[in-house]
Design brief:
Length: 360
């Protein structure tokens, strides 16, 4: 087993260094949502990868050559395919942008499975999941959005469907609803949400892209683009607004290391802990008694039972005994020195007296 620890990430290395755009494009059938995500392959961002839940990418020009598209035959495959592209062998394909077509197709399939499980469990063919079950279901399914929109670090377009205008508002007000089932929290993972529709403008029917939710200062809610709009048009608008400091083309150079170097810690020598039995033996060798240790325990640690002293308290008494012995040695040394000085002085005085008597 390896004892190597995982290197610590340097937070300064996670400063944003490249701009990207994460969009949700919603609309009814036939308004051109799939053609819009195909346009990502012509936006100059690198190779596009489409996760095709509805299995319609085969109709797009350039599939398999200009960009990749993977048909999701079963909804449970989608998280596996995303993991493959982001952190598995698919990284060798060097995908620089992603698209999911469509979120509603994936969500509705998984929600139908959950609904069927509830009805089989209850035995009621008309049973509906509770608000708590819906919330739990959404948290699990939103893991797909989190992986694509946040963890990928790339520009992403999530296609969503609107079954009927006004239908969501009605559903959202029904008892037990947590979020509109087609949106299901999608707006929390994207920079902007755009609704696409076919409208009559100046006597002609044209495609209209309208921003309905925005977290970007470059796109105000209500902002519109009309006509044959591509993903590159949204990028160019962001650049023209000069609201961003980071470029789309390539990441800014990294000026700090990605990981923090582990500084070697200074080794501190921990003195071995002495036991109460060892302390008693040491004290007796130095001329003390066990009663002296008991007295010290009461005085300094308010403990009458020396066998309940903590290791720290025993070490403290050991230090005090050692200090007492050192002090006694110092006192004895000083006393011996004084005695020698007094003896020398007495000898000198006696000699002087003898010389005085001799001269007399």
């Amino acid at each position: 087993m390896s004892n190597q620890t995982k290197p610590k990430v340097n937070p300064l290395s996670r400063r944003p260094r490249q701009q990207r755009l994460v969009m949700a494009v919603r609309g009814g059938a036939g308004v051109g949502k799939s053609y819009f995500i195909r346009s990502m392959s012509e936006a100059g961002m690198g190779r596009l990868c489409i996760f095709d839940v509805e299995r319609k990418a085969r109709l797009l020009k350039g599939v398999g050559t200009q960009f990749d598209a993977f048909e999701i035959e079963h909804p449970d495959e989608l998280p596996e395919f995303i993991d493959w592209a982001l952190s598995g062998e698919g990284r060798e394909q060097n995908y620089e942008c992603f698209a999911l077509d469509s979120w509603a197709g994936y969500f509705s399939a998984k929600h139908s499975e959950m609904l069927q499980a509830v009805r089989e469990r209850t035995g009621d063919p008309l049973a509906q999941p509770s608000a708590e079950e819906l919330a739990a279901d959404q948290m699990v399914l939103q893991g797909v959005l989190r992986r694509l929109c946040i963890e990928s670090g790339k520009s992403v377009v999530i296609v969503d469907q609107i079954a009927a205008k006004g239908k969501e508002a009605k559903e959202d007000n029904e008892i037990g609803r947590v979020l509109p089932m087609t949106a299901s929290g999608l707006e929390y993972f994207v920079d902007i949400m755009v609704e696409v529709s076919m409208q009559e403008r100046d006597g002609e029917v044209t495609r209209v892209f309208q921003v309905v939710k925005s977290n970007s200062s470059a796109f105000e809610v209500g902002f519109e683009m009309q006509g044959d709009i591509a993903f590159k048009d949204f990028l160019e608008h962001m650049k023209s607004e000069e609201a961003l400091d980071l470029a789309f083309d390539k990441p800014a150079p990294q000026s700090v290391p990605e990981t923090l170097e582990e500084k070697p810690s200074r080794l501190s020598i921990v003195p071995p802990q002495i036991t109460i039995q060892e302390l008693i033996a040491k004290a007796e060798q130095l001329g003390f008694k066990q009663a002296d240790i008991v007295t010290g325990a009461k005085l300094y640690h308010n403990q009458s039972n020396i066998y309940r002293l903590t290791p720290e308290q025993i070490a403290d008494l050991d230090r005090r005994i050692t200090a007492r012995v050192e002090k006694m040695k110092t006192t004895q040394t000083e006393a011996s020195g004084n005695d020698r000085q007094e003896a020398a002085a007495a000898g000198t005085t006696k000699a002087q007296s003898a010389r005085t008597l001799k001269r007399a």
